[in-house]
UniProtKB/TrEMBL annotation, chain A:
Residues 594-697, 739-847, 870-958 form the Cytochrome c domain. It comes from the Bacteria. Transmembrane segments: none annotated. This is Nicotinate dehydrogenase subunit B. Keywords: Heme, Iron, Metal-binding, Oxidoreductase. GO terms for molecular function: oxidoreductase activity.
From TrEMBL, chain B:
One of its GO terms (molecular function) is oxidoreductase activity. Signal peptide: none annotated. The keyword Iron-sulfur applies. CDD domains: fer2 (cd00207). This is Nicotinate dehydrogenase subunit A. Pfam families: Fer2, Fer2_2. PANTHER family: BLR6046 PROTEIN (PTHR44379:SF6), OXIDOREDUCTASE WITH IRON-SULFUR SUBUNIT (PTHR44379). InterPro entries: 2Fe-2S-bd, 2Fe-2S-bd_dom_sf, 2Fe-2S_ferredoxin-like_sf, 2Fe-2S_ferredoxin-type, 2Fe2S_fd_BS, Beta-grasp_dom_sf, Diverse_Oxidoreductases. It comes from the Bacteria. Keywords: 2Fe-2S, Iron, Iron-sulfur, Metal-binding, Oxidoreductase. Residues 5-81 form the 2Fe-2S ferredoxin-type domain. Its EC number is 1.17.2.1.
Amino acid sequence: MSAPLPRQMAGPLATGGAASLRHARLALPPRLDWQQSLYTGARLQGLDSEAALRCPGAPQVVQRRHLVAVVADSDEQARQACSQLRLRWSDATPQDGTPRVRAAQTLHARGQDSSGLHDITMDAHYQWRDGESASSTLSSSPFPATGIVAMASPMGANLRLDLPFGNPALIAMEVAALLSLPVAQVEVRSHRPPASAQERSAASDVAGVVALLALQCGQAVSLVLEPTNFASSPTSLQLHGELDQDGRLGSYHLHIEQDAPPPPLAWLLTETAYALEDASDPRDGAALASPYDWQALEIIGPQGAAIPLAASTFAQEIFFDELAQRIGEDAVQYRLQHLPDAHGAALVRSVAEGAGWNGPARQVQGDILRGRGFAYASTLEQEQGQPVQSWSAWVADVEYDRASGELSVTRVTAGHDQRAGTTAAAAHAADDLLDEKQRALLGEQARLAMAQTLAPDQGFDAWSRELRPLPGQASASLPQVDLIDGGTTPALRDIQLKAGGAFTLPAAAAISNAIHAATGVRLREAPFSGEQIRLALEHQEGSGQRPGGWRRLRKYGWLGVAAAALGATLTLAMPWRAEIAPVARPAADLYSAATIERGRRVALAGDCAVCHTAPGGVANAGGHALQTPFGTVFSTNITPDEKTGIGNWSYTAFERAMREGIHRDGRHLYPAFPYTAFAKISEADMQSLYAYLMAQPAVSSTPPENDLRFPFNMRPLLAGWNLLFHKNEVFQPDPDRSALWNRGAYLVEGAGHCTACHSPRNALGAEQGGRQYLGGGTVDGWEAPALTALSKSPTPWTEDELFSYLRSGFSDRHGIAAGPMAPVVAELAQLPAGDVRAIAHYLASFQAPTTSTTTPAPITTSSLNESQKLSQANGKRLFQGACAACHIEGTGPTLFGVRPSLRVNTNLHSDTPDNLIHVILHGIREPANPALGYMPGFANSFSDAQVGDLLAYLRSEFATGKPAWEGVPESIARSRAQAGH
Amino acid sequence: MHKQEPITFHVNGHAATLDIAADAPLLNVLRNDLCLNGPKFGCGLGECGACTVLVDGVAARSCVIPLAGVAGRNVTTLDGLAQEGRLDPVQQAFIDEQGAQCGYCMNGMIMTLKALLLRSPSPTEDEIRSELDFNLCRCGTHVEIMRAALRAVELQRQGAAQ
């Protein structure tokens, strides 16, 4: 509590300020795309704003070309109205054959061009989509998950813009040009300069839109813009090489086409010509050049575009492989013959040796095709003011399964080296080898690079990129990386480790070359997927699928599962488990920002902080009391404190606890900790979660001892419980269902552990499955309603209703998230919308298609006795006095927050009045989202009899046809004894 | 609730940053910490409306909203209704029609009506009645209050026409 404010504060606060501020939300097209500065994304074809305009907050719809926004009195109202817009978008403008005109120039040339004088010529075309630009900003400054807020206020003839970051002069110029205002009339104030190219463009995006809206509305407007996902246009590379008959290298041409970065959003969507020059640094052409001894070499590229090195390495290293293949040379030998750089050649040799290189190593085993590929890169770049040369060589082994179409990298051998400028190599010292931490980091970088190359995201544990770019979409099949040490000086290596440098440049080409070795298919566009190979193979063979292969694979698969289950059973049944030795807490910088961010999402999906934080306590420090039928269990401290938390837990110990419910010291944990669900979490997610928890601040805090009745306080008994009720298996997607459904199932059954509350438990506290799966349960005295067709809700849940409820905490056809569900929704609100959508999609699949509920005969007033009639009449008066201001139907004031209709509220239709009693007595003090509003608790102003009367009235009035509740006084007493949630 | 940051919100157009418990009722914060005594304490349960303020232009019962609920929002109290020394048409109308007897409910009547006029500039008499239905007046001044409300609509219309 601060010191009391000086009284004079009342002076300025008591007078009205400037004209009221309005809030805007933008309805973005489903696909944003551009070529040069032309918009080629989805085009607006129809706009029906009728439903949006009926929303509260005096919404106003602004539209200019493809820019559609809603302006309302509050941000929530704008967002709500925006979601009610009915927009029809065309699919994209197809590539209509208009040639792209680009200004090209020679970026680099050496040697005397002797084109056409050689015996062998080869041409090939490659494409590269850059994932790197997204990941590079991740470590510097991630966008706030909630988006960027900017404000624009018309002040007389002037327009004032307030931005969180941005370059004021540049933005003033941009906005003036967009709105045809003199620059002097645009005043831009920004909190700080942009920290990255991404921030620079985001500031321009938000500034242009908010300025346009403020001018259109003639009023101050505040806009929240969530980070946009542009479908970036690929870098296109055309290669031409000439050789003589002996394989000597002759002329070489590399032609690169790359679009400039997109113009800011407002220009793009309104199709306004953007004339300002982009100021990004063009790449030095020499850095893009092939490292081999071509007699003549020429690189042609666009002016002013920063061409990713990864793109040129990708194209040139595959091209070189194709050349070697063409003249029948070994890929590594041919490179060594033509690599003038002795240091690079030494690295190539040691990596080839380390990998046991012996050609493409093609192997066919049933449907499994194996092969290996090689790629090399060297670059010269400025790092912290000094020129740094780096070398990198990769051997990748891949496996392609013709039956399942799955592509995986099974092994990578990678080597790298780095030197400052041209100084001679430092002597190799014994302590100059990579240490554990550096190996781990390089290994992670390598896996990230591969994950970006391999394809996109269909796995059940792939987190969508909506909030922040998340490069770590590693699939579980990524291999360990064998690192070959090139002998870098330690100081430089640190730079390398931080910057990423050239180490991962050859990854994509090495994988592509390996895919060619395995399958004979050349993939010249990255990223690639098993699907691309399948299509190419089908094209080659002209034959369809081979169902026989499937069956064989399935059979082996079953054997494997049976063996694993047996092993698991033996381990689980052991009542005493070994302690896992404590370790030092992992260094804070061991894990990348991407891994930690991924772990943060797993933690949000798992609501760790909801149970592991005591009321009023520090996040994750434990001490929250969980009431179970067997006594009280207190949650533990999961901050990385070494004494009282999990700071000295190794990953092995953490994973055992999460999957098997065993404390690091070997004790069994109570299944109040839902390890039965967490066992389903994928390996990659589990590791990220560990990384995230270990990166949090350590808090010293010891929670109270559990208070459980005999015999439930005997932990070894849990071994038997586990044997009966726990299956330690990672989630397996159902191949017959969609990716969205599987993603939802993974989140619901795994990290989300929804069944922990929403499935009924048996007498021993184990969740019931089958028809009872998600059939409703109780937690902390609250009823967790059924999420399946067993739902008591008077209107069936749809996917959209579920999405809205889980995202905002409110569905106008079902009610509001309260009690223990409120913090769950608050955590879900921070997850990418796509993941919440997946949960909604999965849960909606359990809803009965039609409502054929057997409604009991309506209870008519005449069948009530006198005391029941009196009770209802009293309840009605209480309702009029205490509840009606917010809950009356049809009339009454419009008040802040939502106005939940009681008629469709699930709690009034339930078999038990518990949730309703909790809310009446304790109110809603911490809603899932403040915009929902608050409800006071009436525990101190209503007697038990009054609560009973109110319940009698509410049930008869709003759940027509349902019988009166029984056991109401007992429920009220229980709820009074319990603090509000 | 976790250890919290100071909470910033806008009151009558000015930013206020307060390091006060996030669950303190907004009404107490306005009256005790910011010395804005327009809103009154009546029932403390959101039933009578005496504490009404505007949150983002919508009527809100400040006794049941904790401070955390208005973080980042615009709060307008009766004290901030006058602009540049000129009373709001709603305030003027209540003076003109002598809408107050004891005056305790007056803040709620004025602010609720102001919220209605912000969203619907020319409401019907029925709409006004429905809006003010749950603002309680114990003196029985309802007739004067209704007259004042209708006059407020008229004054606002004239103001807009000028």
